[in-house]
Specification:
Blueprint lengths: L1 H13 L3 H4 L11 E7 L12 H14 L4 E6 L5 H15 L5 E7 L2 E5 L5 E5 L13 E2 H10 L4 E6 L30 E6 L9 E2 L2 E2 H13 L8 E2 H15 L7 E7 L4 E3 L11
Parallel strand pairs: 1-2, 1-3, 3-7, 7-8
Antiparallel strand pairs: 4-5, 5-6, 8-12, 9-10, 11-13
Length: about 280
C-alpha cells in the first residue's frame, strides 16, 4: 500500500500545473518561457491570406532561437474557434506559472464590431468562422479577460493585423533612482500588445511576405536593441517596429505598441547583469 501511495504521489507531482508548482524566485528572470504561434491561411468560409503560415513558422523558429522552453504552433485546421477559446480559457491558465513569460503571436483575418458601450473593437477570426460574423471569434474582450486570468509575470500579444479597442494602463512615472540594471525593472507584472497596423489599415504584404513580420524577425534577432546595451525588451521592440514599418511602408501602415496592464517590461534578450539601463 505504501508503494502504491508513493507512485500515485509521483504521478500527480509530474503533472502538477506549473501555476501551482512554482515557489520563490527563479534563478533567472523566468521559470519558463512560452510562445504560442497561430497562423491561418486557408479559411473554410473566408478568403485565403497567402503566406501567413510560412510567416508564422519563421516567428516560431525565432522564439526557439531565443531559448523559449515551449513553442506551441497552431496552424490551419487546428486553429478552430473551439480550440482557440479552449487555449485561452483552460489550457494556458492551467499551465503557465506566475514567474513565467508568455508570448502569443497571431496572423490571419481580423474583424471589428461595436461593443455595448458603442466602442469599436477587433476580433480574431478562427479558421471555421466568417469575417463579418463574430459569433465564433476571439474578441478583444476575450483577450483582455485572458490576460486578467493568466498568472504569468509578463504577457505579450503580437498581432500581424490591426487589432484595436484596448483600455490602456497609464505609463508609470519615470524615475532613475535606484536603477542599477535593467533586470531590476523587470520584476513587475506587464501585459503588452503590439499590433501591425492601426484601425482602418491593413498589414502590408510584399510578394506574399508580411512587412511587419520581416521587421519583427529582424528585431528579435537583435536589431531592435536600440540603445545597444545587450538587453531587448518589448517596449524597445515596439518602438523599433513602429519606426521601421512606418518608414518601409511609405507611411501607409502604422504599428501600435501598448502596455495594457502593469508597469513592468518583458525581456526578450537578456544582456549582462549591471548593464546600463534602457531609458524609455
Amino acid at each position: 500500500m505504501a508503494v502504491w501511495i508513493l507512485v500515485v504521489g509521483l504521478w500527480h507531482g509530474l503533472y502538477l500545473p506549473s501555476v501551482w508548482a512554482q515557489a520563490g524566485k527563479p534563478e533567472g528572470l523566468y521559470y519558463k518561457s512560452w510562445a504560442v504561434v497561430i497562423g491561418i491561411e486557408h479559411y473554410l468560409v473566408a478568403p485565403p491570406v497567402p503566406g501567413t503560415v510560412h510567416d508564422a513558422k519563421l516567428v516560431a523558429e525565432a522564439f526557439r532561437r531565443l531559448g523559449f522552453d515551449e513553442v506551441v504552433e497552431i496552424y490551419e485546421k487546428d486553429a478552430t474557434s473551439r480550440h482557440l477559446h479552449q487555449l485561452l480559457t483552460d489550457i494556458l491558465p492551467r499551465k503557465v506559472g506566475r514567474m513565467d513569460r508568455l508570448v502569443i503571436f497571431y496572423t490571419g483575418h481580423v474583424g471589428a464590431i461595436q461593443d455595448s458601450d458603442g466602442e469599436e473593437r477587433s476580433y480574431l477570426v478562427p479558421i471555421d468562422a466568417q469575417i463579418a460574423h463574430p459569433g465564433k471569434a476571439v474578441t478583444v474582450g476575450h483577450l483582455k479577460e485572458f490576460t486578467r486570468r493568466i498568472a504569468s509575470k509578463h504577457t505579450v500579444l503580437l498581432f500581424d493585423a490591426p487589432v484595436f479597442g484596448w483600455e490602456v494602463t497609464p505609463p508609470a512615472k519615470l524615475s532613475l533612482e535606484g536603477r542599477v540594471a535593467p533586470e531590476e525593472e523587470m520584476e513587475r507584472r506587464a501585459v503588452q500588445v503590439i499590433s501591425a497596423a492601426r484601425k482602418g489599415e491593413a498589414s502590408v504584404r510584399v510578394e506574399g511576405k508580411s512587412l511587419f513580420v520581416q521587421f519583427l524577425l529582424a528585431g528579435l534577432a537583435g536589431q531592435a536593441d536600440l540603445d545597444g546595451n545587450g538587453w531587448l525588451v518589448v517596449s524597445e521592440l515596439g518602438r523599433y517596429l513602429v519606426e521601421q514599418v512606418e518608414q518601409a511602408s511609405g507611411g501607409v501602415q502604422h504599428p501600435v505598441s501598448l502596455r495594457i496592464d502593469g508597469d513592468g517590461d518583458t525581456v526578450l534578450i537578456e544582456g549582462q547583469k549591471g548593464a546600463p539601463p534602457s531609458v524609455p
